[in-house]
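Escalation from tier 1.

The customer reports that the assembly of two entities below gives different structure tokens on two consecutive runs. Tier 1 could not reproduce it. I'm attaching the input and our single run for tier 2 to review.
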Amino acid sequence: MVVNWLAVNLLQINRPVSVLWTLAGVYGLLLIATAIVFGLARCHPETDYRELQDRTRSWWIMVTLFSLALFLNYTVSLLFFGFLSFLALKEYLSLIPTRSADRRVLLWAYLAILLQYLWIYIGWYGMFLIFIPIYMFLFLPMRMVLIGETEGFLNAIGTLHWGLMLTVYAISHLSYLLLLSPVGGSVAGGTGLLVFLVLLTEVNDIAQYVFGKVLGRHKVIPKVSPGKTVEGLLGGLVVTTGLAIALAPWLTPLSLLHATCLGLLLGLAGFIGDVTISALKRDLGIKDSGTLLPGHGGILDRIDSLTYTAPLFFHFTVYFYYRGQWL
Amino acid sequence: MNRVLKVGFLLITRLMVLLLIGLCIHHKDRLPTTGPAIIVANHNSHLDTLVLMSLFPLSIAHHLRPVANEHYFLQQNRWLAWVSRQVLDIIPVACETREGDRQEDSFTHRTFLQTCAEALAHNQILILYPEGTRGQPEQLSQFRSGIAHLARRHPDVPIIPIFLQGLGKALPKGESLLVPFLCGIHIGEPVYWQGQKQAFLNQLSDRIRALSTEQLLPA
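Tier 1 run:
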């Protein structure tokens, strides 16, 4: 009885097989990467591989948390993404200068996370789309004006709403993907789309980093992020597009043309998301946004690419495959 | 019973601190693993003590002794007094000096130092705020001399300076609503008594001020 209930309600065993295999593949790659990194560290004790080792260790934790969030039930997935938004917004608000007069306004911004994910939970598509860009956009400045502090008003409301859009609105698109039902020839449905998006975005990050390290010569935007090179960007685009074409029939209803376009779009958008957060940090004069993930910096450093890829991927897919449907 | 209460309380505190606030700890290795020791920090928020206590492993939960204002924690509210005595296990200190009552003053002062000496003899870890009261966020005010008297009596006990950042934003003095902000904890090298009161106090506040410049988070 209990086992049965657990299997049906808590562990959604009926997740599509293709998603299971994809995650198994990710764990396989992680295993190989771990073997290489720790092997290198053993063979070359004179070189410092600690950052790479920290990164690998953090990847294990992140992949495991993400898998658990997907395979425990839908409510758990939503709580996971909601908590991710909370951590990201908290980090953002701790990094930027805020006015002590705005404490209550900030609390409303935190409350917006709860509401945004509530709309997703009850499947209210229209509200999910406009809640932060319209209602919070109108409400937060009003609340600020009621407090009455006008010095630094524009700065305070501008930075707050930008952060809310980035950490809550953009990220919440990840969890709305889970509500999409299977269409076309695909059986993987929303879970497949989500895994596809997150996997491509992260692989793009890694590919850009690796190609940049190995081949990097020409800087793309040295003023914002001196580590980013043309070679890294192109390498990332090639790998991401290739992987998109290879995985699309497996996880998504995307046609070959759409998969190619999406690969290029995700590669480019991921890059832009990355340098946007770099610009923020450069403006504030900090290197990493936190110390939560050893080797990766903070949460913002990890989700920077997703803030751009998630909404773009969501609307691309909805436009071509769910047009005119009640979501 | 007391220890169970303390461990349970610390467990809940630690969970809340992790979920709602989040810590960025700098130099965690400088934290003492056993008593006797004295933790000295800047004071901006009621969260300070809870956060400092949550830094230590649960196994030495019962060794932590926050030094707290007797009037505020023990004489205002029955429940607060019970929690302060039974769970937090505070060492009360009288902060207000009543005019013209020098004799009683020095008497309470001696009892306080006596209680601290007993605690340190039992390998306990004192948590103390030399500013005396919660001030403006991240602004260090004048240190009181109590810590110097304590240090003079215990020259072998390490005094660990800690700078707490962000808690004054999360829950400042006079506010009851907690707004989540990340908290930076900067732990310094231990300081020992070196023979001269004012020089010692200056050294201690300079240490904490120096820690405040190695920022994990911008102010």
